Amino acid sequence: MNKTFDRYASVVFAAIGAFFVVSSRTIAESAYGSQVGPNLFPLILGIILILLSARLMFETRSYQQKEKEEAPHNLKRFLIMVFATLLYAFFLEDIGYIISTSIFLFVGFQVMGNKTWWKSALVAVLFTGAVYGLYVEILEGSLPGWPTWFGL
User: Do 144 and 102 belong to one domain?
Assistant: First the structure.
């Protein structure tokens, strides 16, 4: 870990979080057919980003001075995740939130190095189902659930 980089990154991420919070206040508070307004998600993400940035800034104070160690660059993993993210955004409406998010999470877990594919698949499906159930059923928000050709 690079102390200087982490400090700068925490400041940049805190600024991005503040931008999200301020910008979310300009979005309408309610949406047609949904109890949860479109301003809630960016507001929560901004607050979480600010809190995580503050934690990173706090943790950089406790870094021990070590010899210069360079972290290995994982360009292949990065490019796979960028490609997976682009595909996720492109196909979200067509194949629905549940299928696209489960596939995206599975790919992400495998790229991060999880050796057991069935555990990755199980966690991806359970997490996606829990988020979908919480947001759509309990908070009465709207997400594209299943593709129209799926029959549900």
Answer: yes
Per-position b or e across 56-90, b if 16+ CB within 10 A of its CB = bbeebeeeeeeeeeeeeeeeeeeeebeebeeebee
Same domain, 148 and 80: yes
Print the domain residue range for 125: 74-152
Last-in-domain residue among 16, 48, 65: 65
pLDDT tens per residue, range 8-35: 888 888 898 888 888 877 776 665 555 6
Examine the domain organization and report whether 50 and 93 are in the same domain: no
Where does residue 148 rank: exposed (0-12), middle (13-18), buried (19+ CB within 10 A)?
exposed
Same domain, 79 and 150: yes
Q: Model confidence over 41-86: pLDDT tens digits?
A: 778 888 999 999 999 888 888 776 554 555 566 778 888 888 999 9
pTM of the model: 0.58
Backbone φ and ψ for 5, nearest 5 degrees, come out as -60, -45
Q: What is the pLDDT of residue 103?
A: 92
